[in-house]
Design brief:
Elements: H1 2-22, H2 30-42, H3 51-66, H4 69-92, H5 95-110, H6 113-136, H7 139-171
Helix pairs in contact: 1-3, 1-6, 3-4, 4-5, 4-6, 5-6, 6-7
Length: 172
């Protein structure tokens, strides 16, 4: 358990330090800047920090490394969802509520159900991977846990999109 918290703390501090450097960049509105900077300063080891700041940092790091905008966008959506998931999990203590909060946040930011589903799938699977790696110390076991969780969440998200599509069709 101590190993998990230490690893999580290091990851959060790293994202926070990198994110703080990018907070308030030209693409962020003044309202969002103020909220992100405050959130980045106030975060603790139990939270994921500001999802928008995490997304900016991930985008910048990925773009610098790959020089591919699509890869950088995907990295930013994943980081955004991971931070929103971690924040909600720390606040509510419920994985299902955390997944819903991550989905809602990414959907609000991107306007795209498919992007929100994929990012949420990653965030939940990444949390399972991190927890498993900390508990077992085995990369292969953690990767298998990520894959199994991603598959399970992916199926739930596909059902969600189908249901939403059916509801939209019925209302029109």
């Amino acid at each position: 358990m101590k190993k998990t918290l230490s690893l999580l703390g290091i990851m959060i501090l790293t994202v926070g330090l990198v994110g703080a450097a990018y907070a308030g960049g030209p693409g962020c509105s003044k309202t969002a800047q103020a909220g992100c900077e405050k959130s980045a300063e106030m975060k603790t080891a139990a939270t994921g920090g500001c999802p928008a700041t995490a997304a900016k940092a991930a985008y910048a790091a990925s773009f610098e490394k790959t020089h591919c905008e699509q890869t950088a966008k995907l990295a930013s959506y994943h980081a955004m969802s991971e931070a929103a998931y971690a924040n909600a999990l720390a606040e509510k203590g419920c994985e299902e509520s955390a997944a819903k909060a991550a989905y809602a946040y990414v959907k609000e930011q991107t306007g795209c159900d498919a992007t929100a589903c994929e990012a949420t799938q990653h965030a939940v699977a990444q949390a399972a991977y991190t927890k498993c790696l900390a508990e077992t110390g085995c990369e292969a076991t953690a990767k298998a846990k990520y894959d199994a969780t991603a598959k399970e969440v992916g199926q739930k998200m596909a059902q969600h999109l189908e249901q939403k599509g059916a509801e939209e069709k019925a209302s029109s």
